[in-house]
Amino acid sequence: MSSRSVQQAAPDVETAAAERSGPRAVESWPPGISTRATMRISDVLGALRPEFPALTPSKLRFLEEQGLVEPVRTPAGYRQYSLADVERLRYVLAAQRDKYLPLKVIKEELAALDAGQGSVPLARAVPDGAGDLRPADRLTAQSLAESADVDVALVTGLMEAGVIRPDSRGHFDPWTLEVVRIAASVGAHGVEPRHLRAARLAADRSIDLVAAAVAPLRAAGTPSARARAGALGADLGESLAELHTVLLRQGVADLA
Fold it and tell me: Which residues belong to any copy of the HTH merR-type domain (predicted)?
C-alpha cells in the first residue's frame, strides 16, 4: 500500500477504533444530536469558549475524570468528542456557573435526563446572557455586578483587594466575570475578597514565568515568532494551571 493510501485510510481506522471502543456510557441526552466523535479538544474549546472563556483543557479532563463526559480515544490515544458531548459540557458548565451546583448534583441531573425523566430544550442549554462573554465586550463595575448577579460591593471589594483590575478606562474583560462568579461562590463559605489576594499573587507569579518563557519569541518580532509565542504561552499556562489544580487537590485530600 502506498503512503498516500495509508494516509487516506488513517481516518477510517480511527473511526473504526472509536466504534470498537464500545457503546458510550450515556447516549440518551441530548436527543437527536450526533454522537460520532470527530472533534478534538481544540474544537471543543473553540465551540464553548465564547460562552465560557475560562474553560481549559485541564477542566475538560477533570470533567471527564468525574464521569460527566466520556470522549473516545483514537489508536494514538487522543481524545475525540461528539456534538452530543459538547451539549452535555455546555449543560454542566452552565449549571456550575449560573446555579453554583456541585458536580455530584449535576451528574444526578444528567442521569435523570438520560433516563427520560424530564427534559431540557437545547435552546435552554445555552444560558441566557451568554453573549456577555464575548471577547469584544468590556464591562464596568456596575454591569459586571449585574451580569454576575452579585452586589456591586463584592466587585468593589475584589478591586480593592487587587484580585480584579480594570483597564485605564475602568473597564473589565470577560474573564473577570468568571472571577467574580467564583468569588461569590466561595464567599458563601466565608471567604472574603481580601482572602483571595493569595490566588491573585500566585497567578501573577505564573504569568511572569510564562512571560519569561515567551520573551525571546516575542522579541523576534516576526508574525511566525509571535504565533509560536502565543501557542507556547497557552500551553505553558495550561500546564501551570493544571499543576496548581493537582497541588490544591493533593492538599485538600490531606485535610480529609
Answer: 55-112
